[in-house]
Amino acid sequence: MPSCSLHPLPYRADPAEYFQRIRQAPGAVLLDAGRPGAERGRYDLMSAWPLAELAPTADESANAFLQRLRGALQSLGPAQLADGHSAPFVGGLIGYLAYDFGRRLEDLPSQSRDDLGLEDARFGLYGWALISDHQLGTSALLFHPALAQPERERLLALFQAPHTDAPASFRLSQAFHADLTQADYRQAIERIQAYILAGDCYQVNFAQRFQAPCEGDPWAAYLALRKACPTPFSGFQTLADGGAILSLSPERFLKVSAGQVETRPIKGTRPRGSDAQDDQAQAQELLSSRKDRAENLMIVDLLRNDLGRSCRTGSVRVPELFALESYPNVHHLVSCVTAELAPGKDALDLVAGSFPGGSITGAPKIRAMQIIDELEPTRRGLYCGSLLYLDVRGELDSSIAIRSLLVKDGQVSCWGGGGIVADSNWQAEYQESITKVKVLLETLEGL
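C-alpha cells predicted for aminodeoxychorismate synthase:
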C-alpha cells in the first residue's frame, strides 16, 4: 500500500500562526484542540484547497449522500503511514453535518423555519493536512500519495516561508438578542413537560437562539473566542459565501480508530464559582445531583442503543459514568460509551445510526426531535450537528457542535440549550441556556 510522506515543521501549540496562511483559501478548515488553554485534546488538523467538495442535493437521501462520501474516499485511494509514525488523518474528508441532516435520516415534520439557509452538510476531500501532535510536541505536513508534486512543493514553501499577517477585525453593530421571550420559553418548557407526563417522551433538549448583526472577518471572532473559551473539540470552517462556522465545543460525538468506537456524552451543567470555595461547591452539587445523573444515564442508555446498530453484539461498554469535566465557564457531567464496529460496518454506518447525538436531542430520540421541530421556531442549522474528519483508513473523530456560532449573511447566530425532564424548573433551565453561551456572547460584544 502506498505511504504518505511527512515533512516536519516547527512545532506550534497554537494553530493560529499556521492557519492564518491559508484562512482565505477555498475550503480552509481547522479542527482545533484548543491549546495551549485547553489540555484534553491531542491533535490540531488543518487543510485547504480540497480536491473535491461534496454537499447533498435538494432531495438526496442521507444514505445516498453517505455513499457519495465513500466514493470520494475511494477516488483518493488507499494510504498508510511509514512504520514508526502515527497520525489521526492520512487524507480524506473534513467538514460538517448540520443538525438538519437528521431530516434526511428520519421522517420529521417541517414546522420550524429555515431562515439561515445553511447546507445540511459540506465536506472537502483533502490530499494534505498540517497536523500538530501536542502529546509529542510535533508539527508536520502530511501528503497523501495522490497529491501532485508541484502542489507538495507549493505547500512546503508556503509553510516554511516567513509570514506576517495583517490583523483582522470583527465587530457587532448591536448586542445579541434572543429569538424567544421568557414567556415563550416558559410556554415551550411547560409543553415539553406535558408531553413527558403524557408518556410521549422522557427528556427533550430545548434550545434558544441568540443573534446579532456583524461585520468583519469571522477568523478574528474565532481567535477572540478560543482565547476566552478554549475547548478540545473546537473548529473553524470557511463557507463559500464568505461566512464561517465557529465552534468551541467541549463534546466528542463519535470516534473510530482501528474499529474501536468511543462516544462521550455531556449531560449536566453548573456555572463555575466566583471563588475556589464556591467553585468546588458548584462541582460537588453537580456530581451529587440525582436529576443530572438520571438525565446523563438516560442518554447513555440511548447511545448504547444507537451504537448497537453498527457495533458487534456484546461489545458495548460504559467504562466511565458521571465524570466531572471543567471548562472556563461551566462544569459538565460526562460519561463514556465504547464499542467495536461489527464486521461489514464502517464509520459512516455508525454516523447514520447515531446522528444527531442523543445528548442534544432527547429520549426517545425520534419523538424528541419531532417535539424540538414543533417548539423551536427556527431550524438549528449547524447547532447540535457535527464537525468531523474521516480518512481513507476509516479513522474518524467528530464533535457535537454545541457552543457554536454561524457567521452568515451579515449576522452571527449562537444557540444555548439543555435537557428538559419532568421536574425541570423553567427559570433554572432558562438561566442555564444563557450560562452555557454567556462567555461567547460577551466576548464578541466586547470586540
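DSSP finds ten helices and 23 strands in the chain.
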